[in-house]
């Protein structure tokens, strides 16, 4: 599975060798590992796989997440990126998570830019994690702010909806007019501002620098005599019951996917998708699953992972006819910090960063100077700002998750 550990290794051996494992296990409910004596005694008697199964945690998905965290830590140590984290009580604070496929090249570019702007770097603290590590820390800080906008970071960067729109989190500050789009762009890339879609926030609060498109892959070796699906509505058919894989642990993508299904196909559509769930595989596992006997007939995945297919794979990528569902990469800046953070916003909206996203990560950019390399038929499905502003997205996410997992007949993950 990876070059660091095996799922059959003991919890003690893995946590002894990799501190990241201890942290990740504790975050998944293994509180007893905080007691080092218990970790050394009980941990020697149980394998990682058995421990995870005891809490109904998918061992392979957890293993992938842990391997990514170890990899990132080693890369950071070798390059001096130090996980791209600096805590010194500086004047400016930048915070967020970055999509894993482009995190390292983007951090390298950011590190170079900070070196060129050393005075600004000295005045700035930052905490930029991989998306796989989640937003828990950022959420804790927002909750701890207790309604005081002065305690928030000056700039946030992340894909997904829950942190930025949940009224228990950023939503309360949005309604108070704390945030402002300071990109200065009159128009976005035509891929995202046309007769079908407009990602420019009409209230001038939120900025979207790019998107993570969600498409699907059809396994022709498993499909059988079922009609070849060409769009989202096809995947809600009873013919695909217990046949679809989607990344339920990639919360940004999962929430974006289920929110869009609810927006366009209603609660009934969410329940149909839940009934059709076969597994909650990581996208990289989906690509490898093509020749497995129990493989899903359809795997819903970020577009990036379709680029991993080889010519012999039975998996056929499909850009849905209704459009690829998108998880926007939001840039959220405090209006009161406009002058301080404008250089960072300009950097993130630069043509170079936009091209890195579009070309290296297959995450199309909203920068109007970037050619995203999309075909005319590769358009997008978008919730719409009216829908976002008229609903409590955080509450809607929780309700939609409940409906999905209830229909799937399993506990929420």
Give the arrangement of secondary structure elements.
Blueprint: H1 11-17, H2 19-27, H3 36-41, H4 48-54, H5 59-79, E1 85-86, E2 92-98, H6 100-116, H7 118-122, E3 124-130, H8 136-145, E4 155-159, H9 162-165, H10 171-175, E5 207-219, H11 220-223, H12 232-235, E6 244-245, H13 251-275, E7 277-279, H14 283-288, E8 298-302, E9 315-318, E10 324-333, H15 338-348, H16 351-360, E11 380-381, H17 385-390, H18 393-408
Parallel strand pairs: 2-3, 2-4, 6-7, 6-8, 10-11
Antiparallel strand pairs: 1-3, 4-10, 5-8, 5-9, 5-10
Strand segment count: 11
- At the first level of CATH, the class of the largest domain is Alpha Beta
- Second rung of CATH, namely the architecture of the largest domain: 3-Layer(aba) Sandwich
User: Into how many domains do the coordinates divide?
Assistant: 3
User: Considering the protein shown, what is the CATH homologous superfamily of the largest domain?
Assistant: Periplasmic binding protein-like II
N to C succession of SSEs:
HHHHHEEHHEHEHHEHHEHEHEEEHHEHH
CATH topology term of the largest domain: D-Maltodextrin-Binding Protein, domain 2
Q: Which class best fits the helix and strand makeup?
A: alpha/beta
Rounded mean pLDDT is 85
Globally, the shape reads globular
Provide a count of the helices. 18
What's the helical proportion of residues?
Answer: 40-55%
Radius of gyration: 21 Å
End-to-end gap: 22 Å
Parts with pLDDT < 50 across at least 5 consecutive residues = 77-82, 281-293
β-strand percent reads 5-15%
Let me know the largest β-sheet.
11 strands, mixed
Keywords: Signal
Protein name: ABC transporter substrate-binding protein
Domain DUF1858: 7-62
GO biological process, one term: thiamine transport
């Amino acid at each position: 599975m990876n070059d660091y550990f095996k799922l059959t290794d003991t919890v003690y051996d893995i946590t002894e060798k990799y501190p990241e494992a201890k942290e990740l296990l504790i975050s998944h409910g293994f509180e007893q590992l905080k007691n080092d004596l218990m970790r050394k005694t009980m941990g020697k008697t149980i394998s990682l796989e058995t421990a995870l199964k005891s809490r109904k945690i998918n061992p392979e998905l957890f293993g992938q997440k842990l391997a990514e965290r170890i990899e990132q830590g080693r890369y950071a140590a070798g390059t001096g990126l130090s996980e791209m984290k600096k805590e010194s009580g500086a004047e400016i604070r930048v915070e967020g998570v970055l999509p894993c496929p482009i995190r390292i090249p983007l951090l390298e570019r950011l590190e170079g830019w900070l070196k060129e702007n050393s005075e600004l770097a000295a005045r700035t603290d930052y905490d930029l994690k991989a998306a796989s590590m989640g937003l828990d820390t950022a959420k804790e800080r927002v909750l701890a702010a207790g309604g005081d906008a002065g305690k928030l970071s000056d700039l946030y960067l992340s894909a997904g909806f829950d942190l930025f729109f949940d009224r228990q989190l950023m939503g309360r500050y949005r309604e108070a007019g704390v945030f402002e789009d300071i990109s200065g762009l009159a128009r976005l890339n035509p891929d995202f501002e046309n007769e079908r879609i407009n990602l420019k926030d009409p209230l001038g609060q939120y900025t979207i620098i790019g998107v993570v498109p969600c498409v699907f892959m059809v396994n022709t070796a498993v499909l059988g005599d079922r009609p070849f699906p060409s769009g989202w509505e096809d995947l809600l058919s009873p013919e695909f019951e217990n046949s679809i894989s989607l990344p339920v642990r990639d919360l940004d993508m999962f929430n974006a996917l289920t929110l869009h299904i609810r927006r366009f196909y209603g609660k009934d559509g969410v329940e149909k998708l839940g009934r059709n769930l076969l597994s909650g595989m990581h996208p990289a596992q989906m690509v490898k699953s093509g020749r497995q006997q129990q493989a899903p007939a359809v795997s819903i995945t970020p577009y990036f992972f379709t680029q991993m297919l080889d010519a012999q794979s039975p998996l056929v990528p499909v850009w849905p006819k209704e459009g690829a569902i998108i998880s926007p990469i939001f840039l959220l800046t405090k209006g009161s910090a406009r002058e301080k953070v404008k250089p960072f916003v300009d950097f993130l909206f630069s043509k170079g960063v936009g091209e890195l996203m579009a070309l290296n990560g297959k995450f199309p950019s909203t920068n109007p100077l970037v050619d995203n390399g999309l075909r005319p038929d590769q358009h997008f499905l978008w919730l719409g700002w009216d829908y976002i502003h008229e609903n409590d997205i955080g509450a809607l996410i929780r309700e939609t998750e409940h409906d999905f997992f209830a229909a799937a007949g399993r506990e929420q993950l």
